[in-house]
Amino acid sequence: MKKTPLAIIFLITFIDLLGFGIVIPIIPSYAGSEFAASDVTVGFLVASFSFMQLIFTPIWGRLSDRLGRRPILILGLFLTVVSYVLFGLADSLVLLFASRLLGGIGGANISAAQAYIADVTQPHERAKGMGLIGAAFGLGFVFGPFIGGVLVPYGYDIPGYAAALLSAVALITAMIALPESLHARVKGTSATEFNLPMLMGALRRPKIGMLLILFFLITFGYANIYATFPMISVREFGFSDTQVGYLFGFIGIIGAITQGGLIRVLSTRYEERWLFLTGAALTSVGLALIPYTGSTVPLLLDLAVLSVGTGIMTPSSLSLISRHADERQQGGILGINQALGALARVLGPIWGAFAFQHVGIPWPFLTGGIVLLGVVILVRRTLW
């Protein structure tokens, strides 16, 4: 495992996700209080980011196979900076939507980051490498929501500008310090862009196809709560926007510990399919119990179970997909996977917000628990 490039990609991803963590917990309150957006509209706002990832993630993944990982990562970071500036400048719901759409285009470069990890790790070390990206996400959600919670009393624009500044630091770091990971002998071998036949071809491959479907399901199940967890926290549990930021920070620190440390120990002792199964089971329980926690301590315990589950499940699933993909198609397969994940993050918040407003407050969380229970059953029946 090449430690220096991994450290740099971790640092860049962490700084960028720190900005993401600053704004994500406040979006429902921002849209609702400033622009009178309904719960369903908030769901579409949250989903708009992932809608653009759905379109651009496979494109960035395939382009990174052809042009290299570095230029795609840099371009995505530049677009992310611009999106956060628009977030701070937003004086209408339309401009707020525009900022999230552009942010989704920039954030779609995650497939290039994952392909970068695959480039510089050996197959048996890949779960640990993928865990670094997960740890960067987790740490971004430790400090980002805390910073957003501290800044939001000064206005919803201030967290946006802070996120823009942090992403600019990540952009400059990438431009100065990030080496290219894709070897010259591999460049240019993936000349075709993502298309439906390519997706169907991947889905028809027994192992890869099932793993892609499972990743879609776990992402949809968890994405049900993206918009609704801040809503239930404020309206039903009585937390402030600042306290919601702290709750997201708690989720982040447990996730970071799991993906940055625990997964390293577990991956040397247990097969990835067992880790996938265990993580999905814990996530199912954690999601389903959220609306029934009632007070701070039970909620924190449940969020800990949820965070450990996702922290084990996500890098294990990504490692399984990477190990079953051809070396020359790493970016493309991971791009397809992230596109399916983006589709799940489009559908999940929309369904979650609709269920929250029209079916009943517990249903986004119960839906997620039921879907993850289905994943547990499918993993046990198909990966053995």
Mean pLDDT: 85
N-end to C-end Cα span: 29 Å
Oligomer: single chain
Name the helix and strand elements from N-terminus to C-terminus, one letter apiece: HHHHHHHHHHHHHHHH
| Total beta-strand segments | 0
Structural notes for this entry:
- With 384 residues, the protein is mostly helical.
- The protein has one domain (3-178, 194-382): Growth Hormone, Chain: A (Up-down Bundle).
- It has 16 helices and no strands.
- It has helices at residues 3-23, 27-35, 39-67, 69-89, 93-107, 110-119, 126-151, 157-177, 196-204, 206-223, 228-235, 241-269, 272-289, 296-323, 330-359, 363-382.
- α1 packs parallel to α7 (126-151).
- The longest helix has 30 residues, at 330-359.
- The two termini are 29 Å apart.
- Residues 184-193 have low confidence and may be disordered.
Which characteristics define this entry?
81% helix, single chain, 0% strand, mainly alpha, Growth Hormone, Chain: A, 384 residues
Indicate the topology.
Layout (H helix, E strand, L loop, with lengths): L2 H21 L3 H9 L3 H29 L1 H21 L3 H15 L2 H10 L6 H26 L5 H21 L18 H9 L1 H18 L4 H8 L5 H29 L2 H18 L6 H28 L6 H30 L3 H20 L2
Helix pairs in contact: 1-7, 1-8, 2-3, 3-4, 3-5, 3-6, 3-15, 4-5, 4-6, 4-8, 6-7, 6-15, 7-12, 7-14, 10-14, 10-15, 10-16, 12-14, 13-14, 13-16, 15-16
Provide a brief overview of the structure:
By secondary structure, this protein is an all-alpha fold.
